[in-house]
What does this fold into?
Amino acid sequence: MPVYLLAIESSCDDTSAAVFCDNVMRSNVIASQKVHETFGGVVPELASRAHQQNIIPTIDKALKDANIDKKQLHAVAFTRGPGLLGSLLVGTTFAKSFAQALEIPMIDVNHMQAHVLAHFIQNADKTKAVPEFPFLCLTVSGGHTQIVLVSDYFDMKIVGQTIDDAAGEAFDKAAKILDLPYPGGPFVDKNAQEGNPLAFQFAKPRIPGFDYSFSGLKTSFLYFLRDHLKSDPLFIEKNLKDLCASFQKAVIDALMDKLLKAAKEYNSNSIAIAGGVSANSGLRKAISDLNAKGFQTFIPEFQFTTDNAAMVAITGYLKYIRGEFASPDLTVFSRSGI
Ligand code: KG4
Ligand code: ZN
It folds into this structure.
């Protein structure tokens, strides 16, 4: 019998709901919150309020798009953490009430595992190639930068991570310095596509092992611009595309350097990327270029890169078939391992 599952994602500033039939997506609705744009970053209090406003219409649309009645559902999956507490509470509380009203089980999902497991979402005719275990996944988002050794669906180990800013945060901070809108990653990417990545050079992070650091790069970028703006106030306008391309190259070089070192250490020729920054065109190219070097690579569809409930649904489905359900008295968490 097919399993119908509703999933809810509300860990940060996207309210999302998805409906799955087994491991195949039937709908995936994302309501992005525009309210944060004017503040240049996510305001937690406003995020919780917007989730409260968006959650019912988003779930309603997901059920309608999937052509499923709520009575057909077998389970509700939701993001338990990590994320913003107030945001997580909206999705979790809704999932608890919904599951209780329908007398169906609920399944708690770790957001970072979900980013990785998005690679196991199948297409309608179930022909999509999925990674075989073990593989390495570079998860790069606004809040995290992790190299994860994935030995099984729920056997993941972080082998390297950022010691300060996340890669997405670095993109967003650089964009802010350049006076680009928030979130800046996609704008840096867009400008970078027409710029020269070799035009400028910034300080390279020197961190041992497989860990990352992006705060030095951000400072180097800031000081570089401050110096140039002194002699030419129009420096950014004149060089925007080259600045974006050069900054993006610095981030990608740093990401790829440690990822390849980890691949060597863990003897892995299977590499995936996940998270919002995996939407970046330069990173996607750098990863797909690895195919020519004998790697097998997995790059997510754009709709599964930034936060979405489809990744929560596939994780929920994989837990459902293992019989792993959540107790109604569980609480959310803001930080965690994987
Ligand atoms: O995974 P995500 O939606 O949320 C978190 O869990 O953080 O990632 C959002 C991050 C933001 O920092 C955004 O700027 C970045 O992903 N991002 C990008 C691109 N698209 C989104 N960064 C670089 N290039 C992109 N095309
Ligand atoms: Zn995320």
Notes: The first strand starts at residue 4 and ends at 9. The CA atoms of residues 83 and 332 lie 9 Å apart. Strands lie at 4-9, 14-21, 24-32, 75-81, 106-110, 135-140, 145-152, 155-161, 270-274, 296-298. The pocket of zinc ion (ligand 2) is lined by residues 111, 115, 141, 275, 307 (CB under 6 Å).
